[in-house]
Design a protein that fits this description.
Immunoglobulin-like, 2 domains, 6-stranded antiparallel sheet
Length: 258
């Protein structure tokens, strides 16, 4: 996350000798990826494509391909991918989502997201969001983002239901997940893109609970108690049998001694 006017550097390392080509791509919300730069591995300078010249620069060395963006704009909010060419195969990293914000005093939008209690595997959940943005010309878009550990941000566009109010526009949207499993866990963010601005909610955590079914727990306890009772009865029976056998042996020994 960065603010308008700042400078950020997105880093990309690759030390494999088989890599012959580096590139950077930008994918803005709801659009196809656009190529920013490209270079052969041993070239000292990267070629910056026309629409990105001026504020975008690439630090080019043998094993690094860092992208620097100066004087950030709201339109720079996007996912950036570092690409390599290895054995004639073009491969990409997980991607870095850059979220450019405005100072709080200039933001004309608010996004609310209610919290969600932990859910059990197999349950269905519905995430909800309410967004308020200023009226302006151009499109207003709504999105869901999912962030999980070790994975890139995954985006879902959502039209939502919007109504015009006195001075702004109110939109509500939902996202349903059926039969939740561990692959659905993560933080889900609702976002409103309006008037050249992108406003995020505080996020809703989808987390599975580890609680077991009480009825199953009761059955297990009953089974455990039955096993303990059976073991105790067996132990008492064995003690009684051993005592009886011991008495018989003692009696026989005594009779022989006489």
């Amino acid at each position: 996350m960065a603010q308008i006017g700042q400078t950020v550097t997105l880093k990309c390392f690759c030390g494999e000798d088989s890599v012959t080509f580096f590139s950077w791509y930008q994918q803005s919300l709801g659009r196809k990826p656009e190529i920013i730069s490209s270079r052969m591995r041993h070239n000292k300078e990267a070629a910056i494509y026309p629409s990105f010249k001026g504020r975008f620069e690439v630090e080019s060395k043998e094993t690094i391909n860092h992208l620097t963006i100066a004087d950030l704009l709201l339109s720079d909010s996007a996912t950036y991918y570092c690409g390599i060419l290895e054995f004639n195969s073009l491969e990409f990293g997980e991607g870095t989502f850059l979220y450019v914000t405005m100072p709080l005093s200039n933001i004309q939008g608010v996004v609310y997201q209610p919290a969600l209690d932990p859910v059990r595997p197999g349950d269905s959940v519905q995430l909800s969001c309410e967004a308020h943005g200023e009226k302006c010309k151009g499109e207003q878009s709504l999105y869901w983002f999912r962030q999980t550990k070790g994975e890139p941000v995954i985006m879902y566009q959502n039209e939502g239901n919007c109504v015009d109010e006195a001075h702004n526009r109110k939109c509500t949207l939902t996202y349903s997940i059926k039969s939740v499993n561990s692959s659905d866990e993560g933080m889900y963010y609702c976002a409103l893109a309006s008037c050249g601005k992108l406003v995020f909610g505080n996020g809703t955590q989808v987390q599975l609970t580890n609680q077991t079914d009480p009825s199953c727990d009761m059955i297990e306890r009953v089974q455990e108690e039955n096993l303990q009772y059976a073991a105790l009865r067996n132990q008492k029976a064995n003690k009684s049998r051993r005592k009886r056998e011991t008495n018989e042996k003692e009696c026989v020994y005594s009779s022989v001694a006489h």
